[in-house]
Amino acid sequence: MKNISLFSLRSAQPILLALLFITTVHIADAQVIFQEDKNNFIRLVKKQNETGSDMRANQHPFTLQEQDVSAILSAIQVVKNKNTSTPLFSNEQVALLAAYLPEALRTATAQQDVIFALSKEKRYLAGLKTQTYYVAGSIFVADDQLNILIGEFDKVANKAYEMAYDPTSQGLVKYDFDFGNRKQAKFSFDSPLSFSAPGIELKTKNRFDWVVAPTQLAFEAPVEKETLSPENRENTPSKKDVAGSAPLPAENDIVARFKRLDALKKAKLISETEYAEKRRQLLDEL
User: Which stretches does UniProt call biased (Basic and acidic residues) (predicted)?
Assistant: First the structure.
């Protein structure tokens, strides 16, 4: 009986491995925008086939600026408890989506959604070990708003499972991801969210998995320009002269661009030479 059981297990292994590569309807005819491996990607897929108002076409193609994507995604926090929250997206995930989402939305048709699955690493045991987590969802533009459906947050990579089916780390293991749904799923993402930028809110009060945001964020009202005489320029305090003043919008943008550049380097999307050149350009703007 032991030999029969062992033979049965070995016979079943190819079937089990094949199951890892079965894709959902979402992925079937996907158009790749970014792909690092089987579990890190940004793609265009056919729009979900829902009923009622959701049958309306998306507002695609659409032009969205990289800095707006970065500002929106960076402003979404997952509330852990009364005093603690954590970003929905890591800095590296924000950088990747900010770099590729504008291209995806420019390319998308009215019948396509953008789906994504992106990993991040967390260290534990005093930094001696790491654990991989995934965030996944879908994004589209409708009614002049950026819609973000959250399907997965901090989905844990199963290292034991990977070792069993991919012991040589060839990237054979593919996870199945939930990309969110316009029609609320039975076990959808249900953690409370908070937003640190104006205009970002939940689609409906009873759903934490659907976020809508203006496609352009206005953090501060535009300042009317004034022509200064040489005398006035001398008497006008510079940013460095105002003690304790908050960073100006231009400064915030430069800091965000440095962070995105570092994230792109860490994700190996740019070379060391390109990183050094872009960093020098940013420093020249200061």
Answer: 224-242
